Amino acid sequence: MSTPPASAASSYRDTLNLLDTPFAMRANARKREPELQAFWAEQRLYERLARSGPSDAGRPAFTLHDGPPYANGALHVGHALNKILKDIINKHALLQGKRARFRPGWDCHGLPIELKVLQTLRPEERQALTPLDLRRRARAYALEQVELQRRGFQRWGIWGDWEEPYLTLDKAYEAAQIGVFGRMALAGHIYRGLKPVHWSPSSRTALAEAELEYPEGHTSASVYVAFPVVEVPPSLQTPLRLAGIEGPTDHDHREQLFVAIWTTTPWTLPANLAVSVNGNLDYAICRDGSAEAPRYLVVAAALVERLSQTLERPLEALATVKGSELVGLLYRHPLLDRTSPVVVGGDYITTESGTGLVHTAPGHGVDDFLTGRAHGLGVLCPVDEGGTLTDEAGPFAGLNVLKDANPAIIQALRDSGTLLAEQAYAHRYPYDWRTKKPVIFRATEQWFASVEGFREQALAAIAEVCWLPESGRNRIEAMVRERGDWCISRQRHWGVPIPVFYHRSSGEVLLDKESLDHLQALIAAHGSDVWWERTEAELLPPSRAAEADQWRKGTDTMDVWFDSGSSWAGVLGGLTPSADAPTGLNYPADLYLEGSDQHRGWFQSSLLTSVAVHGHAPYNKVLTHGFVLDEKGRKMSKSLGNVVDPAVLVEGGANEKQAPAYGADVLRLWVSSVDYSADVPLGPGIVKQLADVYRKVRNTARYLLGNLHDFVPDRDAVAIAELPLLDRWMLARTATLIDEVNRYFEAFEFYRFYQALQNFCVVDLSNVYLDIAKDRLYVSGADDFRRRSCQTVLHLVVERLAGLIAPVLCHMAEDIWQNLPYRDKAKEVEPSVFERGWPAVPEEWKWDNAYDFETHAHIKDLLLGLRPLVNRGLERCRQQPTGGAATGGAATRGAAPGKGIGASLEAQVQLSFANDHPLRAALDTLERSAHPEVDNLKDWLQVSALAIDGPPPAEVLAEEEEAGVTVRLARAAGQKCERCWHYSDDIGAHPTHPTLCGRCVDVLARSSPA
Ligand SMILES: [Zn+2]
User: 3-state SS of the chain: helix, strand, coil percent to 5?
Assistant: First the structure.
């Protein structure tokens, strides 16, 4: 027998069961996360869990269909929010045993990439560039960008088919898109028409609604103009005569009577073909008091006073007529040699602004276009692609509508004496979202999807979908209800062609099934380049070969929203749905998840194409998230310097001190922590907080792992039914957590998970259970029941904890799993935490199964009610000077000199309760425990002695009272045991270990038998 020198406290330290685990306090994420990802790749874990195999028939498929980000630019935190949310949902589904295959995608066509390519070229290179050259360069650029973004997404731990993502430039995808277009065309939903569309002179192309933005501070040059009347209809002659307004003849009021209009786009005046009125409004014929010769203006009656001020001239109403009575008036164009009529427009004509009479240019406005169509006015559009006025604009030809046209036209009005007033006018005005230049309405030949043809079906489909948050339903419903036809053609080269031929002489359009099928097959085989590579003879179906010289292929490409809006066909196999779809993906998809701006973007374009072809939505559920702002709620921008770069957050910045490598899990934890139903904040302060929470979870896990180093479940675990009350409480608490987290994940409310996880780790585990457990784990004999029962709980909890955090903190969860100390000794431990599956709650853990509700309530009262009260008293003692040497025993009022308390074990506690206090029943429950070596209040309070009732201690250091409970704290009697630090009367009673208490002597005797 070897007896350690009794005086060396450090030798007793060696007899404690101390923490031992390779799971480090520091995550070292930059190295460790890629290692774990390599482990998943090597195990082919995602593939095995997500893809269907022969043995997987029973597992349901879950499809979260990825909305394709644009293949341009570095990843930003918006990408992180979007893709990590998707990954959390997918990993949760995988853990639940669903085949959650995720096929990430990229939107690869369109103007921004085309512009990127053009920007890299010298002017002479641009000149020589053929459409095919441009397309090849654009393709190469897009693929480069895809590769950069792909690596970023993978570094964040996102699982998916990264080796076979979907790209809208893939030939199979393009062919499916042509298939969608063809089905819509054959169903009569596609038409070609002259129509004013949002046109960007700066990009020389038509733009979709989604490509517009409305910057603050736009001001237009608005003008009030008097159009001279040249002919008065008979219906108006009597009122005029009664008002004393007389011309050379009854119908001729030349240069006397004027209709007054107002416009914010003077450059559209050369295209004026009518003045519209609201038939139901009252109009006044007013004397213009400023004119020398008799002069009369027609304006809305309600506006006479206001216009008097605006036009700075006295206006006196002489007669009032209905708008409908003005029909038949003819006026002379103030600048060009033509006369036009006054017509009845629609309800869009109000008295909110202007004059109540509307300058109507059907080539430059949607209302104008519709009014023009109703009255057979024709469409005049004297503006070319670059915004330059054409010869049809007469003397103004050659002027640009966004530059010099307005001043010239206003000057001409002034010279002609028809300008009533000129005014700068601030209003919402659309801009090209890419060039940041104003757009105009311009009538052009375009291809349209006729939303009118399936609007009701689309609205019915919206009603069938589950929208989260619910407000999304109203948003998209209003947008679909009010939207016009969808202009799907673009005058660009980098896209999928609109597959039509035009007859060279008649202009007839070839768009039939034979031709569409033929082109779909060609594109499936060769990609859409074939449209540019081949001649008409090589593109037309064989039956047309003989007449190939009569046809000309079109040059328009499709709106990129049509590309991504066809993904239900290109990716989910929606054109050929079948029970054994080879994609392993569901159509309709279970879920679409994107930013809330996609109600007018991808959610809508996908809905419209799917409804047009199949009559239903491509998704069952749509979840939206807000946008990422800085901590003050401002947009992130380089100029404000408030951009959080996810790459720096994960991998660290140039200065490690200022920008440490937090790792992907901290980025993922952020995503889980925010209520993304609104815009979400991110900044340095938030990252620090997240890193703290991350560390707390990690250290909790480390403590659990570190105390299991000698534990083998099969050999050492205590049966659940045999566990002490304290342990049953911990398991019941864990069961509640699992139930809660389940609910939060099902509702996609991850921020509640984040709060529950923090609460569980900090309060239930660290502050209560593990705090009390220290004595059981360190001081007991390694194989003592009170230690093994605690380890049983730790191993059950750490496995569940790993499972619950796996969807969010996937790397940490796997790291915990790989560091389970018994994984090699226990058959039942799967290679990966993701193979274990989503934690289920064993029935016997639940408190109503463990013991009656009352018992549970008692334990909870003692742990979460009484313990904090005692801790408060201890804290007060700590604020007094500690005993002896440390402070020299300076006296504090109310405390005996030199008698302060440091560790709680230096204290003894006396409790007294009011009569019939509920805690008395709680104490009785505890008394009845079969395991007093664990379930005793002295240990739960971590003090060296406890007395209930009886006389108070001699020198009370602190007293707390709350709701009928009085806690008195005093210095513990006896001496401190060098091994367990409890104060005891029997120190010195054991000759071999004169500095140890009887309990420790006993432990040592058992662990090293003589
Ligand atoms: Zn001891």
Answer: 45, 15, 40
- Residue with the larger pLDDT of the pair 881 and 483: 483
The Å distance, Cα 477 to ligand 1 centre, comes to 72
Query: What would the mean pLDDT of 434-455 be, rounded to a whole number?
Result: 90
CA dist 871 → 119, 867, 893 (Å):
69, 6, 21
Residue 7 has pLDDT above 60, yes or no: no
Distance between Cα 996 and ligand 1 center (Å): 5
Residue 476 burial by Cβ neighbours in a 10 Å radius (0-12, 13-18, 19+): buried
Q: Are strands 501-503 and 551-553 parallel, antiparallel or unpaired?
A: antiparallel
784 alpha carbon – ligand 1 mean position (Å): 15
Q: How far are the Cα atoms of 166, 167, 471, 626 from residue 66, in angstroms, in the given order?
A: 9, 11, 22, 17
Cα of 5 to ligand 1 centre, how many Å? Answer: 16
The confidence score (pLDDT) of residue 126 equals 81
Give the whole-number percent of the chain exceeding pLDDT 90.
Answer: 71
912 CA → ligand 1 middle, Å: 28
Q: What is the pLDDT of residue 6?
A: 43
Phi (first) and psi of residue 410, to 5 degrees: -65, -40
The C-alpha torsion from 346 through 352 and 355 to 356, rounded to 10°, is 20
Q: How far is the CA of 938 from the centre of ligand 1 (A)?
A: 15
Give the C-alpha separation, 746 to 591, whole Å: 13
Is residue 621 classed exposed, middle or buried when 0-12, 13-18 and 19+ CB atoms within 10 A define those classes?
middle
Task: Give residue 781 CA to ligand 1 midpoint distance, Å.
Answer: 12
- Please report which helix (H) or strand (E) contains residue 583, including its range: none
SS3 category, 467: strand
What pLDDT shows up at residue 662? 97
Q: From the CA of 2, how far away is ligand 1's center (Å)?
A: 20
pLDDT at 881: 60
What separation in Å is there between the alpha carbon of 874 and the centre of ligand 1?
A: 21
Local structure of residue 767 (DSSP, 8 states): I
Q: How far is CA 172 from the centre of its chain?
A: 29
Span 484-529, pLDDT tens digits: 788 899 888 999 999 999 999 998 999 999 999 999 999 999 999 9
Which residues make beta-bridge pairs with 995?
A: none
Task: Please tell me the distance from the alpha carbon of residue 209 to that of residue 193, in angstroms, as a whole number.
Answer: 18
The pLDDT assigned to 447 comes to 94
Per-residue pLDDT for 886 more than 90?
A: no
Alpha carbon of 780 to ligand 1 centroid (Å): 9
Q: What angle do CA 964, 967, 968 make, to 5 degrees?
A: 140
Q: Report phi then psi at 908, rounded to 5.
A: -120, 150
> Residues whose CB is under 5 A from ligand 1 (ion)?
977, 979-980, 997, 1000
What is the Å distance from ligand 1's center to 972 Cα?
14
The predicted-structure confidence for 26-71, as pLDDT tens digits, reads as follows: 999 999 999 999 999 999 999 999 976 655 667 788 999 999 999 9
What's the rounded Cα separation, in Å, for the pair 235 and 283? 14
- Tell how far the Cα of 879 is from the centroid of ligand 1, in angstroms: 26
Cβ-proximal residues to 519 (8 Å cutoff; 6+ apart), any chain: 178, 499, 531, 539
Task: For residue 1001, report the distance from its CA to the centre of ligand 1, in Å.
Answer: 7
CA of 987 to the centre of ligand 1 (A): 9
| Alpha-carbon span 10 to 8, nearest angstrom | 5
How far CA 360 is from CA of 214, 262, 369, 644, in Å, comes to: 24, 11, 8, 49
Contact 617, 465 (CB under 8 A): yes
Ligand 1 centroid to Cα of residue 998, in Å, is: 7
The Cα–Cα gap between 478 and 498 comes to 29
* Per-residue pLDDT at 897: 42
d(CA 757, CA 813): 13
